[in-house]
């Protein structure tokens, strides 16, 4: 794979789902396969970056290190992903392709939760997880570029631009989920990259092609920052 050079850059990428345990046998998860994030990791390593790939529970093989290097850290929960991402700093770029749980059970039962004897339902108490992306964007060691993803089923641009602003991101890659041929699990996707001054449609194409195109855009933004007024870092 060719493309711009990311040699000398540290790129941290999150990928896959998180699993939030309810008890020793059950968890709350989601449909992310990790394909999008792993494709970005492969493309960044092929461009010479030092890649830290923080992976939720997925069945994918570790991408090749290309001309750079690739260190994979496997995690399970949103809390573990948060710790691994923060632990990977400092970085030049963070790309949050993982589908991180927004809520986790308030407590994990030590023993398997048993069915009640009657027909009553089961109420779970959930608490908010920490927003890794928003925290990184406001972190004292903020990466030069913080790039989020937005997985939406409707009103994609409005919700994506809302997250771009609320989480103080440089870019956000919006994709539609819940339809065939894009989003979760599929080998293909279609993205629109939003920035304060940008709305760039990419695809439909394979997640590998899209990863390369996204990284080319990131390279351009990094070079502008590196040759700018010196206030970028
Ligand atoms: O893994 P695949 O099967 O290939 O599917 C790819 C994908 C659909 C998972 C991917 O393209 C994608 O959209 N990833 C983001 C999914 C998501 O959680 O979107 P969101 O709109 O709920 O979250 C917005 C952003 O905040 C994301 O960058 C997410 O990583 C981040 N986030 C969310 C919650 C949280 N607690 N911490 C976060 O960092």
Approximate shape: globular
Please give the count of helices. 5
Quickly give the CATH architecture. Answer: 3-Layer(aba) Sandwich
CATH class: Alpha Beta
The number of distinct structural domains comes to 1
> Biggest sheet, open or closed, and with what strands and sense?
8 strands, mixed
Poorly predicted sequence stretches spanning 5 or more consecutive residues: 227-233
- What ligand molecules are bound, each kind once? ligand PMT
Radius of gyration: 18 Å
Helix content: 25-40%
What is the ordering of alpha helices and beta strands?
EEEHEEHEEEHEHEEEH
Distance between the termini: 29 Å
Number of strands: 12
Summary keywords:
alpha/beta; disordered C terminus; 25% helix; 5 helices; 233 residues; binds ligand PMT; Rossmann fold; two-stranded antiparallel ribbon; eight-stranded mixed sheet
Compose a concise summary of this entry:
By secondary structure, this protein is of the alpha/beta class. Residues 227-233 have low confidence and may be disordered.
Structure write-up:
The chain is α/β, with parallel strands linked by helices. It has one domain: Rossmann fold (3-Layer(aba) Sandwich). 25% of the residues lie in helices and 27% in strands. The chain contains five helices and twelve strands. The protein has helices at 35-46, 78-87, 132-137, 156-166, 207-226; strands at residues 10-15, 20-21, 27-28, 50-55, 69-74, 93-96, 103-105, 126-128, 145-152, 171-176, 188-195, 198-206. A hairpin with a 2-residue loop joins strand 11 (188-195) and strand 12 (198-206). The chain is globular, with a radius of gyration of 18 Å. Residues 227-233 have low confidence and may be disordered. The structure holds ligand PMT.
């Amino acid at each position: 794979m060719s493309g711009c050079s990311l040699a000398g850059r540290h790129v941290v990428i999150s990928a896959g789902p998180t699993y939030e345990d309810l008890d020793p046998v059950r968890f709350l998860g989601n449909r992310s396969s990790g394909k999008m994030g792993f494709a970005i990791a492969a493309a960044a390593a092929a461009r010479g970056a030092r890649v830290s790939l923080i992976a939720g529970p997925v069945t994918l093989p570790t991408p090749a290190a290309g001309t750079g290097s690739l260190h994979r850290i496997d995690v399970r929960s949103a809390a573990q992903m948060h710790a691994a991402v923060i632990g990977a700093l400092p970085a030049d770029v963070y790309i949050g392709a993982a589908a991180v749980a927004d809520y986790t059970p308030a407590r994990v039962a030590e023993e398997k939760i048993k069915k009640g004897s009657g027909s009553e339902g089961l109420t779970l108490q959930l608490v908010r997880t920490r927003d890794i992306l928003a925290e990184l964007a406001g972190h004292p060691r903020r990466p030069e570029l913080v790039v989020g993803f937005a997985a939406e089923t409707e009103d994609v641009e409005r919700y994506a631009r809302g997250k771009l602003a609320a989480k103080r991101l440089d870019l956000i890659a919006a994709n539609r989920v819940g339809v065939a041929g894009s989003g979760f699990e599929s080998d293909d996707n279609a993205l629109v990259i939003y920035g304060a001054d940008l709305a760039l449609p990419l695809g439909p194409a394979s997640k590998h092609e899209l990863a390369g195109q996204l990284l080319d855009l990131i390279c351009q933004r990094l070079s502008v920052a590196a040759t700018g007024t010196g206030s970028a870092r």
